[in-house]
UniProtKB/TrEMBL annotation:
Keyword tRNA-binding recorded: no
Membership in a protein family: Belongs to the peptidase M48 family.
Keyword Hydrolase: yes
Cofactors required: Zn(2+)
Phylogenetic lineage: Bacteria, Bacillati, Bacillota, Negativicutes, Veillonellales
Any single Pfam family the record assigns to this protein: Peptidase_M48
InterPro entries for this protein: Mito/Outer_Membr_Metalloprot (IPR051156), Peptidase_M48 (IPR001915)
Keyword field: Hydrolase, Metal-binding, Metalloprotease, Protease, Signal, Zinc
One GO cellular component, as annotated: membrane
Co-factor remark: Binds 1 zinc ion per subunit.
Protein name (Swiss-Prot/TrEMBL): Peptidase M48 domain-containing protein
Signal sequence coordinates: 1-24
Molecular-function GO terms, alphabetical: metal ion binding; metalloendopeptidase activity
Domain Peptidase M48: from-to ranges: 79-262
Length: 299
């Protein structure tokens, strides 16, 4: 009986505690509320500018022209034709599953920079360095690099990363309202053009772009073996993870290593061929049913 009384007393205490009035929440002042509303309005302006450059044709063209002015344009008919041919085939490959690509077709040009690099900014604006054509003489391998960048574009990886960077770099000015609509537009454009090489793409985004590149080039009719061959070529020339080799295609140290990416592609190739086609370990030599078939010519 005593235990029962103690239990009832404990229950009553808990009940009384639950019915006791909660402590008053700290009230927001009118100034706090106005400040929050103003901050939200300013960030809405930032959203508006990003959507302008990412989604509208006028904004995309401005971004495209700004990149050309900043980086320069290489006019080489043979390379331009090759680039256009690859982009058209990859666009058709992507469009077979995602017809929205035709609503925002890629804008691209060749930059005279001879380093091995390519990048896809927001708005489906692509920059392809001349070094891509000098380093890779095989159209299938060039398609791998472009497919990788289009993977970033389709998933808006760079646009999302740029937005985070803009919130960090411009946050105080945005919240304070120090930048008007036109000034904010110019700041966003400047950030996109001048900091494309410093935008951080996550490890998962890189892996997703690699996977999509394989899918895109395979459906486009390119040799899927080129996926692993590109990375083997890079390893032979620059080692497993040289951070100075390129800024975007071969990304910072927290991203997959060159050998990891090659090995991932090798596994996909083996699975695709039902284990009939493999790449000889640590080489770019193709084997069919365990017998050497072909080794790509050096670039």
């Amino acid at each position: 009986m005593k235990k029962k009384i103690l239990c009832l007393a404990a229950a009553a205490a808990l009940l009384c505690g639950s019915l006791a009035p909660a402590p008053a929440a700290e009230a927001f002042s009118l100034g706090d509320i106005i400040g929050i509303a103003q901050g939200a309005a300013q960030y809405a302006m930032l959203d508006k500018q990003f959507k302008y450059y990412n989604d509208t044709e006028e904004g995309r063209q401005k971004l495209f022209q700004s990149y050309q002015q900043e980086l320069g344009v290489l006019h080489d008919e043979e390379k331009e034709d090759e680039l256009a041919g690859i982009m058209n085939r990859l666009t058709e490959s992507i469009g077979a599953e995602d017809p929205d690509i035709y609503k925002k077709p890629y804008l691209y040009f060749i930059c005279p920079d001879e380093s091995f690099n390519a990048a896809c900014s927001m708005g489906h604006v692509m920059i392809v360095n001349d070094g891509i054509f000098k380093y890779l003489t095989n159209t299938d391998e060039i398609a791998v690099v472009l497919g990788h960048e289009m993977g970033h574009g389709q998933k808006n990886h760079v646009g999302n990363a740029m937005y985070k960077k803009a919130k960090t770099n411009l946050g105080a000015a945005v919240i304070s309202g120090a930048l008007g609509d036109n000034a904010l537009s110019q700041e966003v454009l400047s950030l996109a053009v001048n900091q494309i090489e410093t935008v951080q793409i996550s490890r998962n985004d890189e892996k997703e772009a690699d996977k999509l590149s394989f899918d895109y080039i395979y459906r486009a009719g390119y040799n899927p073996g080129a996926t692993a061959a590109v990375w083997q070529r890079v390893i032979e020339k620059n080692g497993d993870n040289d951070p100075t080799f390129a800024q975007e295609v071969f990304s910072p140290s927290d991203h997959p290593s060159n050998s990891e990416r090659r090995d991932t592609y090798e596994k996909r190739l083996t699975a695709l061929s039902k284990k009939h086609v493999t790449l000889k370990e640590n080489t770019n030599t193709l084997e069919v049913n365990g017998k050497e078939f072909v080794t790509p010519a050096p670039a």
